[in-house]
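Much of what follows relies on a compact textual record of a protein's fold. A record is reproduced here so that you can trace the correspondence yourselves:

. . .
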Amino acid sequence: MATKSTGTKASAKKAPAKKTAKTAASATAAAKKAATAKTAKVATKKAAPAKTAVKKAPVKKAPVKKAPVKKTVAKKTVAKGKSVSGYGSGGVDVVMSVDQIAKEAASIAASGPSKSDLDKLANNDAFLVIEDLRAGYGKMEILHDFSLRIGKGQALCLIGPNGAGKSTVLHSIFGFTNIFSGSITVGGKNVTSLKPSEKLATAGIAYILQDKSVFPQMTVEENLLMGGFLKNKPAEAKLAAERVFDKYSRLADRRHKPAGVLSGGERRLLEISRALVMEPEVLLVDEPSIGLEPRFIDMVFEILDDLQKVDGKTIVMVEQNAKKGLAFADIGYVLVSGETALADRGNDLLENPDVGRLFLGG
């Protein structure tokens, strides 16, 4: 009886059958399409190694299409012959992320130089010695058992990635950090716990900041005299300033002019000269080339070379232009994560393939 009833109903509604069939077919097709999409989505989730790739990939397109984008861009850049480097050499194939540099440098640091190696670089006659220094800011330790040796009249350049602790070394020598352990001696005198003013006045250590520290409204002469504020008598500061003017005619010609009218290179010369008024033996120079045009960079390094070779100053420098710094210095240290990864003669570090690849732009 049930079968007959069904048959009767089916024959009674013959006219709309096509429409119903069409609708059913569309519904079936939509259901199949949805099921296929769902299956593809599930399959993609299982196959894709990273969740982010699945989220970004549209349902209708396979995520594989987005993968070659980076390679295409890189090929185009190489084809055009554009070089990517901080020092005008190298190509896309030598560009590395900061994380990559830090990881590779850390692996090199695992077999860092011994203290006897550092002594040899200072000709076994160190004038400035840092011994197993742990130092930082507040409670944060930046330098970990850091040691350094430099002979009298030598120049040492610190290079390395950002955050390696290069400027912290200079800050620690001058008394700007918290020292947790270790020692700093100059000429056999322990200066570890001295204040910056004491290090300048009694230990012969001067700090040349990387930031602009010239007083633009004051004259060149007044700026120089500010460098002798720790002198016992004003007359002593004036005599020291005259010696600077005798040495640098460029400043002498502008002694009565506001320092604000000086060029970038002349301002840096004034900053260096102001430190000389206290007649220091050790110069701590932080990024001497930063913000300067190439012609002024050469001028500044010529001044530093004269101070070292002619006046016998001992120079510890941090320099972002690693090639320039290492070419100038007798000794080079490569710092990584507050430790010395490599130490060698400046010219030898320039020839070191690891140093070239990681820090010199290839």
